[in-house]
Amino acid sequence: MNLLSFHLAVLRAAVAFGVLPVAATATAVDAPALPGPSAPAMSARASIDLSRYFATREAALAELDALQREVDGWHPDASTTFAAVFDAADALARRARRVSAYVDILAARDLDDAAATQARNRVDALGDQLARSLDDALRVRPLAAFDTAAAGDARLARYRHLATDAAARAAHALPPDAAKLADAAIEPLLRDAWTIHQRVERLPLQGQADGAGDAKAADRATREAAWRRRWQATQARAEVDATLLLGIARTRRALAQARGFADAPSAGYVERGLDRVTVERSLADVRAHLALYGRYHALRAQRIRAATGIDDVRPWDLDAGSDTSPHFTLADVRTIAPAALAPLGRDYVRAFSALLSADAHRLDLADVLGRREAGGFSVSAPGTPAGLYVAAFGGTLGDLRVMLHEGGHAIAAQIADDAGTPSLLAHGPNGLVESYALLNEFLLYDHLARHARTPAERERYLVALVDDMVFQVFGSAEEATLEQTIHDEAAAGRVRSAADLDRVTTSVRSAFEPWPADVLHASSSWWATKRLYYQDPFYLVNYLYAGVIAINLYAEAKAHPATFATRYHALLARGYDAPTETLLAPMLGDGVALDALGTRAFEVIGAKLDAIDAVRQPLH
Length: 620
Hints:
Blueprint: H1 3-16, H2 22-30, H3 57-72, H4 82-109, H5 114-139, H6 143-151, H7 154-157, H8 160-169, H9 176-201, H10 220-236, H11 238-258, H12 264-270, H13 276-288, H14 290-308, H15 330-340, H16 346-356, E1 363-366, E2 376-381, E3 384-392, H17 397-418, H18 430-450, H19 455-491, H20 498-512, H21 517-522, H22 531-535, H23 541-559, H24 561-574, H25 580-588, H26 594-616
Parallel strand pairs: 1-3
Antiparallel strand pairs: 2-3
Helix pairs in contact: 1-9, 1-11, 3-4, 3-5, 4-5, 5-8, 5-9, 6-8, 9-11, 11-12, 11-19, 13-19, 14-26, 15-16, 15-18, 16-17, 17-18, 17-24, 18-19, 18-23, 19-20, 19-23, 19-26, 23-24, 23-26, 24-25
């Protein structure tokens, strides 16, 4: 199946399932001009004031058109100085970030706003094109020439990392015409697959009841039935999800091979500042510590057994015996967040409080998901306070976590912008970027545990902290292992259907999880629930590195509270002008290596398991 056939097959499947109206197939292929404002997907609880970016949609589109013309015509010749090259590229990047902020929010507010989605795709493609043009300009200039120029220009020196990376990427650059085709057709195709996956997941199935309450019912049989209904619903959608995922795998493999990579995982890891050898070594290190993961599972089962008397704990029992889940309001978020993030310093707390202010119009969230894009993200543009999009806020602990996580991305970007960091240095290795947001999560749970009113409440939040740390390290390793295996097995012709995906998934999970074969078999469509497999392939492995880094930063904040905030602010203000290890040196010591950080992370997780044991003793 070629790429166009895959695209059309996906769209036909979506129409057949009622996911897209028939007209949507024309929208995706014909790419209409951006129309006037569409009806809102639903009444939002809070909305970002988009006029701070552009007065109207038409103004945003006009700027996008102008940017496209300028990027199309930007080809610095050999006589252009390094300073002029970077100044021009940064000016274009600053403008692109402003357009991106505007259309990202518009598209996320309503999955049916095809015009906003098209504009979002165009901005993404423009960013890729600008990055390639900068690479082309740097590759024809020797690094030695850059060093000579930077010796007399301290402002230029911070771009050396970009110049080095450009030279390394040269071997894997697509020819210009192929790159334009990828931007114009293939990448939008892949984003369409993600959109359709979201729609498929929201399809109501005949006989499917809302089992949210049943999942936490006191009766064990009721819980099990709810658990099985959920997985039966996932299985009912599995053939469509398999078509999407295997189409993504074929497309990613073709793109990778066109760029000179052996396979899609190798290309995906390099795009994230990693390589397959490093990733496989890290995954092996996690597997070598699966005894710690086993201890975590045993402690969780022990807690449930003590509360319920259930001997053979199963997945549907994981919420059994727990006390009433806490409920948080937005007012609570505005109180808890500053207190939890206090270890990051007064400037950080002040910026985060301003982000959450009811009068600032920097939040975009609703009470229910509706047609909004799932999840959350931040938007930022130089000269404009950063904004935060959250699909829906229902007041759960998980919703509170999302606010602090995505808000962490927003504040990290704003601190860099306020420090005058160039937009070219606003993006860096995904593992490091995500570690800043995860640190906020860890500090949230730590704060709630330390200020708990009862031992049971303290235990709840300590468990939440350990759950988070364990998931980021062991859970991310499991998900990354499965994703790599799916792509490898699909390339070898051994995965062709949903049933094949189920088989591979069960094999990988059995090495990580304690559940018996019948439970793994009943939930074998687990692969279909991993949204990043569709949205951003090979991104998940970054959470392994992010988790390890964030646990180390958390431990550092605890060990050296007097100096941590100042060093952390300087780290964020710097942007991403060096490799991860160099950036982290002032925080974690010179000569730090990602592989070595795992040792401290496993020690911290072990200590937190000890803390849960200690707080449990008086209770049981």
